[in-house]
Write a structure and sequence with these properties.
385 residues; Rna Polymerase Sigma Factor, Chain: A; binds NADP nicotinamide-adenine-dinucleotide phosphate; alpha/beta; Rossmann fold
């Protein structure tokens, strides 16, 4: 039996992970579950899955969670430290399914224990990829990607002979606004932006998919996960979301991973690794497939992609600033403070005002993250005034 902890168990990744685990209950047991505010769902999951430990990020909800779990043999913790503690508990696999930079400290904590960490939570890899990978190497830990594109690359990437790899190609569905004009996108509502054509995901990543910032974040994520220079990472729009990414080798061979658009596939890959497990749900049927299309992304309508490449060229500080600014801008869009196209405009304005710095320690990273969020808030406030 593999002992699994799920950070962010009440979210889209967390619920899909639970689905996979419950499809093979004899193979997995749950150590820890965490959430931020959804105390009802967390308590229900903890009882149903017989978890040993739960942590709620919002400390004001500790009493509520404790009351819901009264009489159960489940340790209850709260706050950022409670979640970090959950990440440290003995486990064979820690699933990092928190959204945003809030997942950085728990990921570092799990890696410091030498654990296998299955990461969906891409923002810490974007903002602090060098530190995360260095922590993994120092503690002999292992990161397994859950993001579908990176799981795809991981499955076809010859890590023993990287000199034979010409490039990796990340595929992008193009999101709900693939064929929209700039003018139409300027008036897009949060409801339209989160209505992804192929994937059902949390609100933040759904907006990132609509701006295609998600692909920009993934380019940076791939740079750190696979130790590749940015020149070897390309993006192609593939609206059907069948090919989840590919690796092109110097001899002209291209290896691609394909599957239905269902996050349970990459989650199961990480959970069962190095083996494979049966996954519930639909499967690819080539017999009924009509077309697989690939095209260059339109970088005029989706400027987040070139912005990410520029940030990678500038260095880790710029990747961090891009991520922090994007988290604040997306929240502001979802709360109707700024328009859709202002998300990437705001990120660009923040990057223009951020000066280069050498980030080494976690403290330096958290300080720049906090300063960038304040700068972004002030730029948005001046726009709204
Ligand atoms: N969803 C997908 O299909 C998918 C695919 C690829 C990659 N990813 C990546 O996976 C991550 C999770 O995405 P998601 O779509 O699952 O997000 P989500 O549905 O919004 O779930 C986020 C989870 O994180 C918790 N959380 C939020 N803020 C927190 C904080 N400050 N401290 C501690 N916990 C916090 C939430 O708790 P509450 O429920 O209590 O708020 C929830 O459990 C993101 O980085 C995303 O980019 C997602």
């Amino acid at each position: 039996m593999k002992k699994v902890s799920i950070l962010g168990s009440t979210g889209s990744i967390g619920r899909n992970a639970i689905d996979v685990i419950l499809s093979m209950p004899e193979a997995f047991s749950i150590q820890a579950l965490t959430a931020n505010n959804d105390v009802a769902a967390l308590a229900e999951q903890a009882i149903r899955l017989d978890a040993k430990y739960v942590a709620i990020g919002n400390p004001e909800l500790y009493g509520d969670l404790k009351a819901r779990l009264a009489g159960k043999d489940i340790d209850v913790y709260c706050g950022e430290e409670g979640i970090v503690q959950a990440a440290r508990l003995e486990a064979d696999c820690v699933i990092a399914g928190i959204v945003g930079m809030a997942g950085l400290k728990p990921i570092i904590a799990a890696l410091e224990q030498g654990k296998v960490v299955a990461i969906a939570n891409k923002e810490p890899l974007v903002a602090a990829g060098a530190l995360v990978m260095e922590t993994m190497h120092r503690h002999n830990a292992r990161i397994l990607p859950i993001d579908s594109e990176h799981s795809a690359i991981f499955q076809v990437f010859d890590a023993r002979h990287p000199e034979g790899i010409l490039r990796v190609v990340l595929t992008a569905s193009g999101g709900p606004f693939l064929h929209w004009t700039m003018m139409d996108m300027a008036g897009a509502t949060p409801e339209q932006a989160v209505a992804h054509p192929n994937w059902k995901m949390g609100r933040k990543i759904s907006v990132d998919s609509a701006t295609m910032m998600n692909k920009g974040l993934e380019v940076i994520e791939a740079r750190y996960l696979f130790d590749l220079p940015r020149e070897k990472i390309d993006v192609l729009v593939h609206p059907q979301s069948v090919v989840h990414s590919m690796v092109e080798y110097i001899d002209g061979s291209v290896l691609a991973q394909m599957a239905v658009a269902d996050m349970r596939v990459p989650i199961s890959h990480a959970l069962a690794w190095p083996r494979r497990m049966k996954v519930p749900g639909a499967r690819l049927r080539f017999e009924t497939m009509q077309n697989l299309n690939f095209m260059q992304p339109d970088i005029d309508r989706f400027p987040a992609i070139p912005l990410a490449y520029e940030a990678l060229k500038a260095g880790q500080y710029a990747c961090l600033a891009m991520n922090a600014a994007n988290e604040i801008a997306v929240q502001s869009f979802l709360s109707h403070r700024i328009g859709f196209t202002q998300i990437v405009e705001t990120v660009k304005a923040v990057l223009d005002k951020t000066s280069a710095q050498n980030l080494k320690s976690l403290e330096e990273i958290l300080k720049l993250d906090s300063d960038t969020r304040k700068l972004t808030e002030s730029i948005i406030a001046s726009k709204c005034a």
